[in-house]
Design a protein that fits this description.
This protein is mainly alpha-helical and 484 residues long. The protein has one domain. 75% of the residues lie in helices and 0% in strands. Helix 3 runs parallel beside helix 17, helix 4 crosses helix 7 and helix 20 runs antiparallel to helix 21. The longest helix has 35 residues. The two termini are 37 Å apart. It is a multi-pass membrane protein. Its main location: membrane. Keywords: Cell membrane, Membrane, Transmembrane, Transmembrane helix, Transport. Belongs to the GntP permease family.
Length: 484
């Protein structure tokens, strides 16, 4: 994984292609990107093709039509697939193992029983709060694979629409991913723009709280009416619960395996689930307050890496959710293997989404978008949001959009105060979240986990991301005016 220092050095050293004059290839890249996205949507929605095949076909078309040498087209696609699966794929697999053990041990039941206490109307707010807490140190994908079993079981038990609880959880994770350090996008923008981490964190929290409220529980009520689906998809398969099951426990919403002799306590369940959160928070604190090369820094970086943190949680769960509830070693091995079966399709689709994104980047779409944004001559905050939003729409990558947009507006930021530099970071982060669609691996992750169609994912997840982006910009501009 690229570090903040590496991102900052690369952005500073590399020539800025967006500063070059408009070229015919820029027009070609934009037209090809639009056609490529249309091909993917047409294949999936109208011809009912599998999303993996549709994304692969669309990516190869974009690569060839945008002028990437023929012998480099498949390499570009493979690089994108490997870049996503080499990291996110491992996390999804570990998260599925943790989710399976959490459910079969009865730990998920214990968490949901606690959440369901009190007024049912408070449940979406609880989901948003839990997701926001979990999302502080984690990538969106990591937080999602940890939350999915709890969200799906809560939906299954409450017999309500999945989006009523799913949208608040997704909003909590996404807002933290775009606005709050130590997430990689905001940290990279802070390094490139030489902003202050503490000021950015404080203003980011000030923006994040109302955005989570509106895009989460409030929009979740509307999304649940638009898409009134229940618990389904890979998320329900991970926890092993089915409304159609003949098992009395499953029929009543209980996911605990009949072989479990006891149920883990709520405290043990929380300790197990929050163990990766604690490890990653320790690393995040080290990233902010410990210089590189300081004694113990390498060890903290190692234990706080998401792969190690989730692996530690899985090993801990094999004790707390396995041996302590009565499962033997052979049973645990079978459960670990069974946990991976429901996510095979998810992995391939997410990987293909990463490949499609990489071909768009290599084909020059992001550079063309940046040139258009620069030509408008707007203020640094508005320009930062627009550049990030356009690159996000074109490439599907929030991190690519953040790093590219920060590099483009950096020359305009030299005269800004520390407060306005922090607001510029937040504006870039807000732009990087706008309207996730078929070229974003996260789009397919949400679609498959919640068992949605492409249209349903656009009406829920994509609209939610747009609300976050636009409201984030509005609050940033308001703060900019107020703090001038």
């Amino acid at each position: 994984m690229i570090t903040l220092a590496q991102l900052t050095t690369m952005a500073a050293a590399a020539p800025n292609p967006a500063a070059q004059p408009w070229a015919p290839h820029d027009t070609q890249a934009l037209i090809v990107a639009v056609i490529g996205i249309a091909i993917v949507v047409t294949l999936i929605v109208w011809l009912k093709a599998h999303a993996f095949l549709a994304l692969t076909i669309g990516a190869l078309f974009v690569g060839i039509a945008s002028g990437i040498p023929l012998d480099k087209v498949t390499a570009s696609f493979e690089t994108g697939v490997g870049g996503v699966l080499g990291y996110v794929g491992v996390l999804i697999g570990l998260g599925a193992m943790l989710g399976k053990l959490l459910a079969d041990s009865g730990g998920a039941d214990r968490v949901v029983d606690t959440l369901l206490r009190g007024r049912p109307a408070t449940l979406p707010w609880k989901m948003a709060l839990i997701a926001a807490i979990i999302g502080i140190p984690m990538f969106f994908e990591i937080g999602l694979v940890l939350l999915i079993p709890v969200v799906m079981l809560a939906v299954h038990r409450s017999k309500g629409p999945a989006m009523r609880l799913g949208i608040p959880a997704l909003a909590g994770l996404s807002v933290l991913h775009g606005f709050i350090p130590p997430h990689p996008g905001p940290l990279a923008a802070i390094g490139i723009l030489h902003a202050n981490v503490g000021i950015t964190l404080a203003l980011g929290l000030l923006v994040a709280i109302p955005v989570v409220i509106v895009a989460g529980p409030l929009f979740g009520m509307l999304a649940a009416r638009w898409v009134p689906v229940g618990a389904a998809g890979a998320g329900l398969a991970v926890i092993g619960a089915s409304a159609d099951s003949s098992d009395p426990k499953a029929a009543s919403g209980k996911a605990q395996d009949p072989d479990a002799k006891r149920t883990p306590s709520f405290a043990i369940t929380l300790v197990t689930l929050l163990s990766p959160l604690v490890l990653m928070l320790i690393k995040a604190a080290a990233d902010i307050w410990m210089p590189a090369g300081a004694p113990g820094r390498a060890f903290l970086d190692f234990i706080g890496d998401p792969v190690f943190a989730l692996l530690f949680a899985v090993l801990l769960a094999m004790v707390t959710f396995g041996l302590r509830v009565g499962f033997n070693a052979a049973t645990l091995s079978k459960k670990i293997g069974a946990s991976l079966l429901p996510i095979v399709s998810v992995l391939f689709i997410v990987g293909a989404g990463g490949g499609f994104k990489q071909v768009l980047v290599d084909g020059g779409t992001g550079t063309a978008i940046a040139k258009i944004a620069i030509a408008t001559g707007l203020t640094a905050i508005a320009l930062g949001w627009i550049v990030a939003a356009l690159i996000r729409l074109a490439t599907g990558s929030a991190t690519v959009a953040t790093v590219t947009a920060a590099g483009i507006v950096a020359p305009l930021s030299t005269h800004l105060s520390p407060v306005h530099l922090a607001l510029l970071v937040l504006a870039v982060g807000a732009g990087s979240l706008i309207f996730s669609h078929v070229n974003d691996a996260g789009f397919w992750l949400v679609k498959e986990y919640f068992g949605l169609t492409v249209g349903q994912t656009l009406k829920t997840w994509s609209v939610m991301e747009t609300i976050i982006s636009v409201m984030g910009l509005a609050l940033t501009l308001l703060l900019s005016t107020f703090l001038s």
